[in-house]
Hints:
Layout: E1 8-10, H1 26-30, E2 37-40, H2 50-60, E3 63-66, H3 70-74, H4 76-79, E4 83-89, E5 93-94, E6 97-98, E7 102-108, E8 111-115, H5 123-126, E9 131-137, H6 138-147, E10 153-159, H7 166-173, E11 179-181
Parallel strand pairs: 1-2, 2-3, 8-9, 9-10, 10-11
Antiparallel strand pairs: 4-7, 5-6, 7-8
Amino acid sequence: MTDGQQDIYIDFPYKSGAYGYMEFEESDLNNVKENSIFIFTHTHADHYSKKNLKHVMKAKGGAKYGFFKISELERLNQQIDEFEITAFKTKHTFFGIPFKHYSYLITWHGKKIFISGDTTEPQTIGQMENIDLAFVPYWILKNAKEEGIEIDAKKFAIYHLYPSQFEAILKQTEALEKFIPMVENGQTLIIE
């Protein structure tokens, strides 16, 4: 995410291709902007790579924030102009093992952006109003529909799609402009 002055990376760098999800080129690590902020939802390899983050921060500088120290993350509210981040402890399990996991609501220059991470429960996002862009895994939408939870968002960026799901998701969402499948590296979304 960028406003042209500050660059923020959410759950990147991760391990390319982890668990069969999206891959990126090694050169993408070299293209990270100088002195960026890196925010993480949890430690799974498809959201976080200590090795890649260390490499990027050594070359480009920057600061990391996230699930490991929420009080530091929330101090970003005083460090970035027109920026507010609220952390929500949300459930995420992997083979029945619970992980420390947070979802985030970012308000930046008056735009509300929700970052779901890997939570499976739609209750947190279902309590929010007027979200401009919600980054959600496909299962949040599925679970919200099954549980009768309305999500008040203008647009949804849908991630955590295996390459084998790309075609089906594109067909299901092509007529619905508010659903944007995240299926290509370097996709750009503009919030107006």
